Amino acid sequence: MSRLPVRWRLTLAFACVMAIVLAATGLFVRQRLAANLDGAVAASLRSHAADVAALAQQSDTGLADAKHSRLLGQGPQLAQIVDVRGRVMDATPGLPRRSLLSPAELAKARAGSVVVRRTLVAGDQPVRLLGLPIRAQGQWLIVVVGQSLEEDRRAVDDLTRLLLIGGPAALLLASLAGYALAGASLRPVEVMRRRERAFVADASHELRSPLTMLRTELELMARDQPSGADLIAATASAIDETRRLGRLADDLLLLTRADSERFALHRTVASPGELVRGAAARARRQPSAVGLRVDAHADADAPLVLVDVDRVTQALDNLLDNAIRHAASAVEITAEGGGSTVEIHVRDDGAGFPPEFLPQAWERFTRADAARTDDGTGLGLSIVRTIAELHGGRAHAANRPGGGADVWISVPSCAEARTAAADDALAAALPPGREDL
Question: How would you classify the pairing of strands 330-336 and 293-298?
């Protein structure tokens, strides 16, 4: 059972529950129908017994000529009038001239009333009999009335057949619906599981490279025991790999916390101009930026933003690092826009992204061709998008018409961010169902 896929296990569990529900419901309906029919027969017998008693007390013509009486073979009811000794004094036509009740049953009827179930030989039909004592014609008599149970039995049998045929069909349809519903419900889970497995596999692959390099450097140092310049170079290489491991671990931690919604932003008011100028200054100090022109511009009317400066700085540094590695001669970072959002663009004059890569540029561990990615881990753009979305913004990427890439993020302005934060705080403070206040 545990080896079955989760979808099949859920479907089997659902089918078992539905089988129990359908069986219990069918049994309940059958019992209710039988009880209702039984009550209807009992009421009909009492009514018919009262009619026969009135006829015996008021009429001298007997049951044979009574217009309201019906033969057993033509309808559901029959009647006899029996004296206390068991002699049949009158009966509906077609009945035997002997009492339908046994002597013991007649004795019980004289004391009050008796209800019995019997199968008549003629027609092999089940009937229910009711015996009641009456005072008529100057003596105590017993009125015996009966009604065929054949129609009731046929109705119960028809319902039973319907339940035996319709129940499995309903169970099959319900199971198919449960299978489809389980598939639809588990589809997001399966997607998440596949993404998680891919994430773990990619993270393991990315961690393996710096770990292998670090181990190699340490093994060579232990074997060769270098000194002087060789020792400094080996130590520097080991430190670089350690830093790479640290950056990768930090990136993975950020993404994991963002996925689990355990990532807290520390927002402060910041100037977009200062953010882009600071990012450009840091980029110019990178060794890979030697020979490149890194420009920074900000619109004069660009509003202030309410952001986590450290995280936005991290996103801009990622964008600039990516642009610098692939630019031909120049990189530009600009803050544009006004009103409710501010867009921060990073443009380069390199080869741009392959067109087929743009739809998946923001996925984790996703790289374009080697000319665009070099030794990156494939997490840079994913982290940029995560940081932008944590701030309530978006991330975009496109190729420039004249060549090169344009990657940008949008974040809410200060007033817009304060309003959104206030709305979130108010919604969290309101009781459930009072969001309309």
Answer: parallel
Contacts of 38 (CB under 8 A, 6+ apart): 152
Please check whether residue 412 is in contact with residue 420, taking contact to mean a CB–CB distance below 8 angstroms: yes
Closest CA to 142 of 125, 160, 129: 129
Q: Given this model, what pLDDT does residue 22 score?
A: 92
Q: Is there a contact between 353 and 369 (Cβ–Cβ < 8 Å)? A: no
The DSSP annotation for 77-116 comes to: EEEEEEETTS-EEEE-TTS-SS-SS-HHHHHHHHHS-EEE
- Please write down the long-range contacts of 35-43, taking CB distance under 8 Å and 24 or more positions apart: 37/152, 37/155, 37/156, 38/152, 41/128, 41/147, 41/149, 41/152, 42/115, 42/128, 42/130
Residue type for 382, please? S
| Cα 28 to Cα 16, 24, 144, distances in angstroms | 18, 6, 33
Distances in whole angstroms, Cα of residue 197 to Cα of each of 201, 254, 404: 6, 18, 34
Domains of the chain: 8-148 (3.30.450.20), 156-259 (1.10.287.130), 268-423 (3.30.565.10)
Tokens linked to 284: 């110019």
Give the list of residues 6+ apart from residue 167 with CB closer than 8 angstroms, or none: 22, 23, 26
Q: Helix, strand, or coil here: 431?
A: coil
Query: What pLDDT does residue 296 have?
Result: 93
Q: What is the 3-state secondary structure (H, E, C) of 139-163?
A: EEEEEEEEEECHHHHHHHHHHHHHH
The pLDDT of residue 345 is 94
- Which regions in the chain score pLDDT beneath 70? 1-2, 59-77, 121-123, 195-210, 244, 247-248, 251-253, 257-263, 338, 364-378, 415-437
Identity of the amino acid at 36? N
Supply the pLDDT for residue 189. Answer: 76
Q: What is the pLDDT of residue 426?
A: 40
Residue whose C-alpha is closest to residue 369's, from 398, 326, 409, 399: 326
Six-digit token string for 209: 């490279």
Closest CA to 318 of 251, 367, 241: 251
Q: State if pTM tops 0.85.
A: no
Identify the pLDDT of residue 281: 92
